[in-house]
């Protein structure tokens, strides 16, 4: 019993001295540790040291990717994570049916995700944690008439310290990416 009282006295003394000295660091750290234990998704560390996150939203018009009968149809879309954007911007559409993305984009390629978007769709993708080497985000939309369409778009990113919200807007013959708040 005496050892229990002694431990309580020491803890009380440490608490009081930290409060009097204005040093709340140990208490803040303990509080943060408790929060992380309760919710492991809570980010830890300074924002500029953490990996960036990407919240991705797809919005498609009702007349996207019209087929030969003039009816809108679903479209295949690839979101591409890049270290550099020049190879994607200089590529031509036919390359993507002949070769794999990593072969076309070489060392600029980090990863990609495939999606199928229907006409009139609104789709929110759960947050994605970016690689710290990620500097650009590209989109490739596989339109049925690529020669008439703007089938790719790129935006600049930083792989560390940011929370990005990006809209991928699919129009009849154009895909556009933009950041929003």
From TrEMBL:
Residues 1-29 form the signal peptide. Keywords: Lipoprotein, Signal. InterPro entries: T6SS_SciN (IPR017734), Type_VI_SciN-like_sf (IPR038706). Pfam families: T6SS-SciN. Transmembrane segments: none annotated. It comes from the Bacteria. This is Type VI secretion system-associated lipoprotein. It comes from Rodentibacter ratti.
